Amino acid sequence: MALKIGQDRARFRHIIRGRIRKNLRRYISQGELIGRQGKDRVSIPIPHIDIPRFRFSDQQKGGVAQGDGEPGEALGQGEEQPGAGKAGQGEGDHVLEVDVSIDELAEILGEELELPDIEPKGESRLNEVHDRYTGIRRVGPESLRHFKRTYREALKRQIVTGSFNLDDPVVIPNPSDKRYRSWKTVRKPIANAVIIYMMDVSGSMGEEQKEIVRIESFWIDAWLTKQYEGLESRFIIHDSVAREVDRETFFRTRESGGTMISSAFKLCKSIIETEYPPGEWNIYPFHFSDGDNWSMDDTLACIEILKESLIPWSNMFAYGQVESPYGSGQFIKDLKEHLGDDPRLVMCEIANKDAIVQSIKDFLGKGN
pLDDT tens, 115-138? Predict the structure, then answer.
């Protein structure tokens, strides 16, 4: 019975996985998952899964309520309830919510978008230390005593010495019979990575544009977290001045003003210089803007920072330009003109929420 239940559960999870993949693009573009996020799992609304129900035998005879009834006859003669609406012929949709881990969602995302596994750059100097149980030994703390091995040793000794009584099968271990779990300390190198999000929050970036950034950032985080243990995330917002903020502020901020993109690039450069040596860290800066900058002089300053430091230090520098009715969209054109030949600079234009999926593939599809 337990084996059958396990098989049924595995089959159910396989069906759920298929449903998630089928509707993944809709989940991404509408941001349904982000609002439902828990500590490390999310609830997924899965439509069109039949809910189990009782079905009576075809041999069952009888009427409806009291007396004989006809097929399709209504139960009872009560008045129609307000707001019930007209009855239809179609079957209603059954929506079931299932819990899925963030790692599993990231895996499904990678499969759906055919994202390659990322090869970490360089070797990390940091290690994750943990204990692993590797065997059995004769000494150790009582909390690690191995009951089965101790019992077996005691039973074996009593049988060999002839002290085991079949009529009174009591097995009493002595100190020489006790066995304990042994362990060793394992040092596991961690591929250290930091992702630095930068977002333009000037007046031309509306709530829809920020929502696009929020959704895309969530999925990028989910994928890179699966690729790296101990991924760190930093957040920068800017208009004419840049400042570092926490995750909640990054996603919820409402600001306006002019735009100087170089302010964000300078702050990003400072954070990397002081906290993330490029030789020891895999660095992923992501900048999102509507492409409207204060002046060409500031754009040239941005290009210089990218060329001399940010791009050489990074596994990949990603620039996503969100379409806005108020932005000029010029910045991506200037980047293509001056840095378009550098493969480490990945640029993408995001017209709307439906373009998020392709944008993620453009950013992460090269496996840098």
Answer: 776 666 555 545 555 667 778 888
